[in-house]
Amino acid sequence: MKTILRVIVFSLILLITAGCGTQNHSFKKPQPGQQLIQDEKQIQINTDLAEKAKKTAETVKGVKESTAVVINNEISIAIKVSGFDRLRLKPIKAEVHDKIKEFNKDYNVYITSDKKLFKQLRQIENQIRGEQDKPLIDLQKKVNKINKDMQG
Questions:
Q1: Keywords of this protein's UniProt record, alphabetized (predicted)?
Q2: Tens digits of residue pLDDT in 107-140
Q3: 86 FRET partner, CA 20 to 30 A, in 5, 37, 39, 104?
Q4: What angle do CA 141, 70, 79 make, to 5 degrees?
Q5: Whole-model pTM?
Q6: Where are the domains of the chain?
Q7: How many Å apart are CA 139 and CA 102, to the nearest integer?
Q8: What is the DSSP pairing of strand 74-81 with strand 108-112?
């Protein structure tokens, strides 16, 4: 009799705790791909502004080469500085930042001289200019990661 009572009490406890764990959400989940399409339409890539930013960066003494991507309101720039100019890296980056910010006050400007990030940003720039085999949302995620890495 005691074991039957224990089994019943244990079963009730199990049912009560299992019942508390389920919740009925009243919101409608988006169908697969639906959210992706909405985000794709909101992403704006500005190749003209990216080209202008690249040319502006290359006017700064010490910058040998640059690459830039503009997505929404963010300008991401990577520069190549070599030789003794690397000793002035901080002032060079600051000058590039200031010159680009000067004609694009509404944009966030990210700048790096890291070789790995330069390569990644150049790949994204080439993907944007060529046939896009990757969805824009993927490119934006990559650029956001690069911008995060630029900050530290």
A1: Signal
A2: 999 999 999 999 999 999 988 888 666 778 888 8
A3: 104
A4: 95
A5: 0.69
A6: 42-146
A7: 26
A8: parallel
